[in-house]
Amino acid sequence: NWHIDAICEHLQAVSAGQIINLLINIPPGCSKSLLVSVFWPCWEWATDPSLRWFFASYDQRLSTRDSVKCRALIASPLYRRLWGDKFKLTMDQNQKTYYETDKGGYRLATSVGGHGTGEHPSRIVVDDANNVQQAESELERQSVIDWWDLTMSSRGVSRNVRRVIIQQRLH
Asked: What pLDDT was estimated at residue 156?
């Protein structure tokens, strides 16, 4: 559908530094997580495996799910045949929620409110920061805002970080 082309065009602009902060609001089931949290980092690592990726979601399981899908794509025979000469995943840091390339890049999967301090990523992706069932709670919404303002707003500044937030409109 047309929205996939639009998302890819905007992600390319983020990669090129033409867009620094991108917000994508589309309904569930439109491939936003696959495009942004799985395919995009694989695409960028094919040309720059030194990029550091930070992914968060309201639920750690969602961040982990996409991290595993991304790692499986990188390990696939097709990906290895096309870009296997560019980088390898290191064996000593190759977990579901954290893995590194031999070129200094990494992918960290966490949750909103979880690990973030001390990280200096090149890309921050937040995929569904709010739980649909808790979106009407002012306390829950404020908790996400505080996490963003107090922890995430200063992450990656020294690396000219680019930020992408994807979610459905909830409130």
From this structure: 63
pTM for this prediction: 0.88
| Main-chain dihedrals φ then ψ at residue 119, nearest 5 degrees | -90, 145
Blockwise average pLDDT, block size 10, the chain, 171 residues: 94 97 89 95 97 91 95 96 95 87 95 73 87 73 76 70 84 59
- State how far the Cα of 16 lies from the Cα of 9, in Å rounded to an integer: 11
Burial of 40 (0-12, 13-18, 19+ CB in 10 A): buried
**What is the SS3 assignment for 48?**
coil
Work out the angle at residue 29's Cα, subtended by the Cα atoms of residues 67 and 137, and round it to the nearest 5 degrees.
Answer: 85
The answer to whether the CB of 151 falls within 8 A of the CB of 18 is: no
What pLDDT does 155 receive?
Answer: 66
Across the chain, the runs of DSSP E, i.e. the strands, are: 21-25, 52-57, 89-94, 98-101, 106-111, 123-127, 162-167
Give the residue from 137, 136, 142, 116 showing the smallest Cα distance to 57: 116
Quick one: which of 160, 167, 131 has its CA closest to 37? 167
